[in-house]
Sequence to fold (405 residues):
Amino acid sequence: MRSRATRFILAQATAAAALMLSSLPAAAAIDSVAPSPVKVQVAATGASSIAVTWRVGRSFMATPPVPATIESARAELLIGGAVVGTVGRRLGQTTEGDLTPETFLFRETVSIPRAVVYRAIKQESPIVIRRVFADSAELAETEDGEVLVVPAGPGSAAFSIQRVSLSFFDDSRTQVLSRNSELRAVAEVNTTGVSLLTGVWEVASGSSTAGTPVFRPLTLVRQGVASSGRTVLTSPRLPTATEGTNLVRFRITNPETELQQPILQYYVTPTSTTVAVNPLREILVSEPRAGAALTEDTRFAWTALPGTATYHLELFAAPAGPAGPVDTQALQSEIPSDPSPDTEKTDGQVALAGIFVQGSETAARLADFTLAQLPGDRRYLWKVSAIDAKGAVIGSSSVREIYKP
Fold:
């Protein structure tokens, strides 16, 4: 048996321990934040709204109640780990802390601005909605939850250029016209993604095209691109006061592209273009042979025609498929002999590609950007016309056939 003294000492120790326990601070904290949904897809073409429920769990280790306020100031939007904005309002609930564990539900609608969606597409990274919740009973402890937002559907791909096509108003790639005539070019740009397309219409005048072309800007273009993937842009009026061969292009500055951007040619004569001389003097062609394969190394050659200021080499559509026998005499009547804009043209008669060559030259090769205008596995018809200093057509070759693999 314990003595009276021993029992007294034990009683005093028990009372002291109880007093110490009652004076300890309550240990309470948020231990979980679970959003619903965890992942959601939004349209890539504009702003979106997302309904989110935040389920917050709280627990503590203490006998007395632990009252507190559970709250979150704002939601953060992140792309690639960096905060790009804050949205939403303050969320908060109070509790008397009578029960443990406890669960709190917070419901809200989070708005994702269009600019944030476009930025996520451009960076090829999803958007993260993050909420940080704090417990007023233990301010040093916080817990956060995240919702993954993925732009999807049309336009969700990264913004890029797939194809650029350039032509004049009648779908031709070359033009012969008199001084001060009106002329415009049309660019068709095929893209993926949604963003801002920027570029510059540029021209190189006849005075510079004999050597290395010197392009100067005409106008800057800023065009929002939707998810349709096709944008058509019309140039301002092109300068036609300078005689000779002129070049025009639409140079894309955003997005960056490795695609070779096409260039159009137009030839300005000193006086009004006239009706073709009849009969035309014949230009004899020597290369390439009929039915030859068209590549970047193909050389077109012909005999000189006195009085020529410029030669016009043109390529026209022919039936699809491998090269075969061609009735060039019948096709001769289908190809216009006069390349002036006054010549009436019907479907199939507009040249798909062409180049101008100085009158002192009798051979040429197609530039890469000109060759790229012609789809492969097709037959084409070509001919050479001679234009004098007054803009009149004074000669023409017979129609030849060529095949692009």
Observations:
- Residues 2 and 8 are 10 Å apart (CA to CA).
- Residues 13-26, 337-348 have pLDDT under 50 and may be disordered.
- The two ends are 112 Å apart (CA to CA).
- The first helix runs from residue 4 to 23.
